[in-house]
Amino acid sequence: MIRTIRAGVKNLIPRSLLIRSLPAPAGDRLLLTFDDGPDPAVTPAVLDRLQAFDARAVFFVVGRLAEACPDLLARIRDEGHVLGNHTYTHNNERDPPFREYKRDVARCQDVVRRATGITPALFRPPKGHLSPVSLLVPRLLGLRTVNWTLGVRDWACRSGEAAMTAAALLEEQAAPGQIVVLHDDNRYLPEILDKVLPVFRNRGYDLASAAGQL
Question: What is the mean predicted confidence (pLDDT) over 145-156?
Answer without folding.
Answer: 97
